[in-house]
Amino acid sequence: MSEQFGEVIVDDTADRALGESPEVREYLGSAYDSVAGFGDLLREQGELRGLIGPREVSRLWERHLLNSAAVVPYLPETGTLVDVGSGAGLPGIVVAMLRPELQVVLIEPMERRTTWLEEVVDTFRLGNVDVRRGRAEEYHGAFEADVVTSRAVANLAKLARMSLPLVRKGGEMVVLKGRNVAQEIEPARKVLRSFKAGEPEILLGATVDGVEPTTILRVRRG
């Protein structure tokens, strides 16, 4: 299917085919229908509601849904997870669908995005999700999570200042980052030391053949 947004012509045929492939269905298992339904909503409303850019429609599965799912193997089955700067619900909504026993808190400062997130939660009856409007810093001291995640929010030093106060001692920050994340580690050392954090680990987030793996950074709070 091709759609035109101004001068941008979007052909999402290949991306739809990827999402309907046996490999993706097998990878997502029992969560497939929910994740696919969430993807359909993003495809229909995401650009119009300012959640994703028009060019992202043609790579929704590859760059967003599967990219978000790539972090799940590094997350616990149960406990509490906080998604900082949840935006359109990537990765938080996808995580909640794949980890139904995990309590997921989505923190997002923009009202139109929290409205969207609440609609998604209601649509898919995600009883394990709590949407909270605000900045991560506003919730420091309000609760402690077993793990905090995020995607494309900030550099590691800033992200650590935002996220680690939300993590219980012994818990982890597990975040989706760009391939150059190694360059962010040294400038973040001072912040990481202030939380007695361990050595950051750079991990590979792979999903299905033919889809480029993403880069995941994990660090444990001491």
Short summary:
This is Ribosomal RNA small subunit methyltransferase G. The chain is an alpha/beta fold and 222 residues long.
Labels describing this entry:
222 residues; alpha/beta; Rossmann fold; 7-stranded mixed beta sheet; two-stranded antiparallel ribbon; 9 helices; 9 strands; 34% helix; 24% strand; globular; methyltransferase
Topology:
Elements: E1 2-5, E2 8-11, H1 13-19, H2 22-28, H3 32-45, H4 60-69, E3 79-84, H5 92-98, E4 102-108, H6 111-123, E5 129-133, E6 145-149, H7 156-163, E7 167-177, H8 182-185, H9 189-194, E8 201-205, E9 214-220
Explain the overall architecture.
The protein has 222 residues and is of the alpha/beta class. The protein has nine helices and nine strands. The protein folds into two domains: 2-66, no CATH class; 67-220, Vaccinia Virus protein VP39 (Rossmann fold, 3-Layer(aba) Sandwich), CATH 3.40.50.150. A seven-stranded mixed sheet has the order 5-4-3-6-7-9-8, with helices on both faces. Strands 1-2 form a two-stranded antiparallel sheet. The longest helix has 14 residues, at 32-45. The radius of gyration is 17 Å and the shape is globular. Residues 2-7 have low confidence and may be disordered. Its main location: cytoplasm. GO terms for molecular function: rRNA (guanine-N7-)-methyltransferase activity.
Q: How many strands?
A: 9
Weakly predicted, low-confidence segments: 2-7
CATH architecture of the largest domain: 3-Layer(aba) Sandwich
* Tally of discrete structural domains: 2
**Principal-axis shape:** globular
Indicate the percent of residues in helices: 25-40%
CATH class designation of the largest domain: Alpha Beta
Distance between the termini: 50 Å
Q: Which structural class should the secondary elements be placed in?
A: alpha/beta
**Which homologous superfamily in CATH is the superfamily of the largest domain?**
Vaccinia Virus protein VP39
